[in-house]
Amino acid sequence: MIIAKLCNPATGEPITIWVVGRIGKMWFTKFGNPESQASLTIMPLSKSLGQQSVTLLAKMSSPALNINQQSMQVIHTIKWQNGKRNDGETEAILFDAVYDVRAEGSLKTYSEWPLWKLGDLKPGDLVLLEMKMTRYSKKYEEKWHSRAQYEMIAISLLDITDITEEETQADIEKEGTHTHRQISDIITKEYPDCVLKVKQIKQLQAQIKSEALPTACVAAKISNHMALSTSITQGLLLLLASLLPIRLTRPTSNLHALQMIERLLPAGEPQELLILYPKEKYITHWYYHIYFTSTPDDDRVLHPALLEIFGKRRPRGEVVIVKNSEEFAPDSPAFDLDCEDLGKTLWWYIKSGRDPVEEASERRLMHYIQQL
To answer: For the chain, what is the largest distance between any 2 Cα atoms, rounded to a whole number of angstroms?
Structure first.
């Protein structure tokens, strides 16, 4: 793998990029030890910023990537944590360029900012991320491809999302006729040995409400150890049997939806998304998004079904599939997944030999014409 930086042609210095967003997922350690390659996913505050970041990566890759195969809702960055010891050997050193700027009134140099512990960052925290763009070369099907990626330089904490223990009147969420603080006081009075803080009361009641909400099939998993058959009937039945419906409470925001998907994915670095339009030719306004990961020296089995559809270059390991659209609304029943329809769509692509990339291009063109 060959890595190069994107530099300013006038100065030769790497181009610096800043973005503000909320943390989606972090991957810096494994079993308590620093990983060689860390990763951070953030959700930018505006949709246009996400689109711009994806477009930049797509255009700076060679051959250029299809923008629609990338997630436009998140920005994914990496960081190599390797350092050299005195004996010349390399070891992973935990990233520590993390700063607390919540009390700062203006941008300063990093040496003037107080440090913040990486381990104290949590999903949902608002951060200012400084990064640079690098490009690496990787061999795909006997050809070298250049891929652009973002590499983090520093993380500055702007706001945390923890529930404070000082509950103001504006934050009171009533359960019956009692506030969370009143419930805590009642329990403490009746059971002196039981100590429940306001924050814990909120978490417990949120959990109870969540469990009481109806669930829906929000995604599906397909194992890479599934079996395929050339028999029309048996093949479809095997494919349907291999789909594992994920029934959860519908997410309430795009950030929650992405966090849900990331929890479902196997360990590894998330890859560019695959797009699959349903088998019905008249459907142009929504599609399936296929999420998967890769690992260094990935030796997982190529996914049998997606190998048939997308070819040798496509996923290894388990995948997660969801419905998506430009008008995606995370809590809408319109984006619940029907596993039977998904299975029939996968089977249609396998038996017809239809190129999913060409199909996606035609559907997008049809959708554009329909909007005229």
So the answer is: 72
Tens digit of each residue's pLDDT (9 = 90 or more) over 97-124 = 899 888 765 556 677 778 888 888 888 8
Q: Where do we find the tokens 């909320």?
A: 22
Closest Cα partner for 101 from 109, 113, 91? 113
Closest CA to 285 of 338, 331, 323: 323
Rounded distance between C-alpha atoms, residue 235 and residue 227, angstroms: 9
What is the Cα–Cα distance from 141 to 315, expressed in whole angstroms? Answer: 14
Nearest-angstrom CA–CA distance, 85 and 92 = 10
Specify whether the CB–CB gap between 38 and 46 falls below 8 A: no
Pairing of strands 143-159, 98-100: parallel
CA 218 to chain centre: 15
Alpha carbons within 13 A on the beta-carbon side of 364: 14
pLDDT at 21 over 50: yes
**Using the 8-state DSSP alphabet, how is residue 69 labeled?**
G
> Are the beta carbons of 258 and 74 closer than 8 angstroms?
yes
Q: Residue 285 has what pLDDT?
A: 92
Backbone angles phi, psi at 287, to 5 degrees: -155, 170
Structure letter (DSSP) for residue 365: H
Q: Under DSSP, is residue 185 helix (H, G, I), strand (E, B) or coil?
A: helix
pLDDT grade for 2, boundaries at 50, 70 and 90: very low
Kind and range of the H or E element at 229?
none
Report residue 68 as tokens: 């629609």
Q: What is the pLDDT of residue 81?
A: 84
Q: Which residue has the tokens 């390399």?
A: 90
Q: What is the pLDDT of residue 103?
A: 74
Contact 121, 82 (CB under 8 A): no
- Note the residue count of the chain: 372
Which residue bears the tokens 């009134």?
A: 105
Q: Is 239 exposed, middle or buried (0-12, 13-18, 19+ CB in 10 A)?
A: buried
8 Å CB contact between 148 and 92: no
Q: What is the mean pLDDT of the chain?
A: 78
pLDDT in tens, 224-276: 777 777 676 677 888 888 888 998 888 888 888 888 888 888 888 888 889 99
Distance CA 8, CA 108 (A): 23
